[in-house]
Write a structure and sequence with these properties.
Blueprint (H helix, E strand, L loop, with lengths): L6 H8 L8 H11 L13 H7 L3 H9 L14 H6 L4 H10 L14 H7 L9 H9 L15 H7 L3 H9 L14 H6 L5 H9 L14 H5 L6 H12 L14 H8 L5 E2 L2 E2 L1 H14 L9 H7 L2 H19 L1 E3 L2 E2 H6 L2 H7 L5 H6 L10 H28 L6 H11 L13
Antiparallel strand pairs: 1-2, 3-4
Helix pairs in contact: 2-4, 3-4, 4-6, 9-10, 12-14, 14-16, 16-18, 20-22, 22-23
Length: 430
């Protein structure tokens, strides 16, 4: 009689290039020859590990039905559940092994739990296995388990693998949005680095990520967005971070500001088809806005960087002149065009209650402010959208309360529940 199937000879049968055997073939062979469910190969894998590793779903179920240990760990501490979690058939295999008693909270010798594996799986599905992640969390898998070497929690992995829906789910379940991994890196940093993901960055900022958080090298998310040659996604990330109040002049441990990093990484790429690179233009304009808020004698470190490029320096000087003009253009008391450019839109929205605000704004020809005209228009529209949404929210509250609440109370209620999405906004901290 032929020897029974073991962990040592099963892999050879699975990997046959001629007359490859299906799950049904292997099940039949197991019935004829028998199978040693406790056998181990040189990596201490069982036959169950091997069947899972090769996505042989029916064979997995056959082994489990016949008593295979669903919690046997291999040399690396990987249990059948963890093997299932890294399979492209995870949606079928994970529920199957858990049905037969697999411990959902198992971790390998490197500290990885099922979430660390599952999030890394490539999937064309937009949900990125959201339902499976929900199930695992419900069964006790911890969202703050860290990998031993990288110190990464599932939230770090989800951001790096650009799994937006999983990031949202993990945050909903209480993941620490500012958790630091190896080298002090944090989710917002990972969202900005290596080309960046604007949609992930926006989500994290809206959920309250600390825009000025630093890693062990002193770098912020803005530094990360400026470290490599910039693509369109970087530009969007830079703008999102600046809009959220990121400190353009924060220095890392090497003394580099974001502007200095752009200068280092874009040498030879300052101009594109004869025009100033728009990423640099964005940061130069922000530098000019900061400059005119300081005493005239103040010299900023980044001005030394800008002076290295005569055309950029000329552009910077033009921006300063244009920015100074906006400061003199008053819309209403305590609000100029400069304030529109530099103040959180939720604060501007509050000022828009003035009955003449919009009329007075429209009297200015924004073409006169060539460097900032489009930015002013965008800032106005953003604040107006926020203002209109606030008024609608107030109407809804008044209707629900049968118009019995004083206006001041209604406005304070709206202010408390209506989030502008910018963590540094001083109005949110009042």
């Amino acid at each position: 009689m032929a020897d029974p199937l073991t962990a040592s000879n099963l892999r050879a049968l699975i990997l046959r290039t001629v007359d490859a055997l299906s799950s049904q073939d292997l099940i039949l062979l197991s019935k004829i020859r028998g199978v040693d469910l406790k056998s181990r190969n040189s990596s201490r894998q069982t036959v169950l590990h091997l069947a899972l590793e090769h996505d042989l779903i029916e064979l997995v179920e056959y082994f489990l039905e016949n008593g295979a240990n669903p919690n046997a760990a291999d040399y690396n501490g990987e249990t059948p559940l963890l093997t299932a979690a890294k399979s492209r058939q995870a949606k079928r295999l994970l529920p199957l092994v858990m049905r037969y008693g697999a411990n959902p909270t198992a971790r390998n010798v490197d500290g990885w739990n099922a979430l660390h594996y599952l999030i890394r799986i490539w999937t064309s599905q937009i949900d990125g296995h959201v339902d499976l992640v929900k199930t695992l969390i419900a069964k006790g898998v911890l969202i703050d388990d860290r990998e031993n070497d990288t110190k990464q929690q599932p939230i770090h992995v989800a951001v790096q693998y650009r799994k937006l829906e999983l990031v949202k789910l993990l945050l909903d379940k209480g993941a620490n949005i500012d958790a630091q991994a190896e080298n002090g890196n944090f989710p917002l940093y990972f969202a900005a680095v290596g080309g960046g993901s604007p949609i992930l960055l926006k989500t994290l900022l809206e959920r309250g990520a600390n825009v000025d958080m630093r890693n062990n090298g002193g770098q912020t998310a803005l530094h990360a967005a400026c470290e490599k040659r910039l693509a369109d996604s970087n530009r969007q990330c830079i703008k999102l971070l600046l809009d959220a109040g990121a400190d353009l002049f924060a220095e890392d441990n090497k003394g580099n500001t974001a502007v200095a990093l752009v200068n280092q990484n874009l040498r030879g790429w300052i101009y594109w088809n004869g025009y100033l690179n728009s990423d640099i233009a964005l940061m130069v304009k922000a530098t000019a806005l900061k400059k005119i808020s300081l005493p005239p004698s103040t010299v900023m470190k980044d001005e030394g960087v800008l002076r290295e490029h005569p055309k950029i320096w000329e552009f910077y000087q033009n921006c300063i002149r244009c920015a100074a003009m906006t400061r003199d253009m008053i819309i209403i008391k305590n609000c100029s065009l400069y304030d529109l450019l530099t103040t959180c839109h939720c604060r501007i929205a509050k000022l828009m209650r003035h009955q003449d605000f919009e009329t007075r704004f429209e009297r200015y020809n924004l073409k006169d402010f060539s460097m900032y005209g489009n930015d002013i228009r965008i800032a106005f529209e953003r604040a107006k959208h926020y203002h209109d949404s606030m008024l609608q929210q107030e109407d809804d509250i008044n209707e629900a309360a049968y118009y019995t609440l004083p206006d001041l109370i209604v406005r304070n209620l709206v202010r408390c529940i209506f989030d502008c999405g910018i963590r540094k906004c001083t109005l949110r901290q009042q």
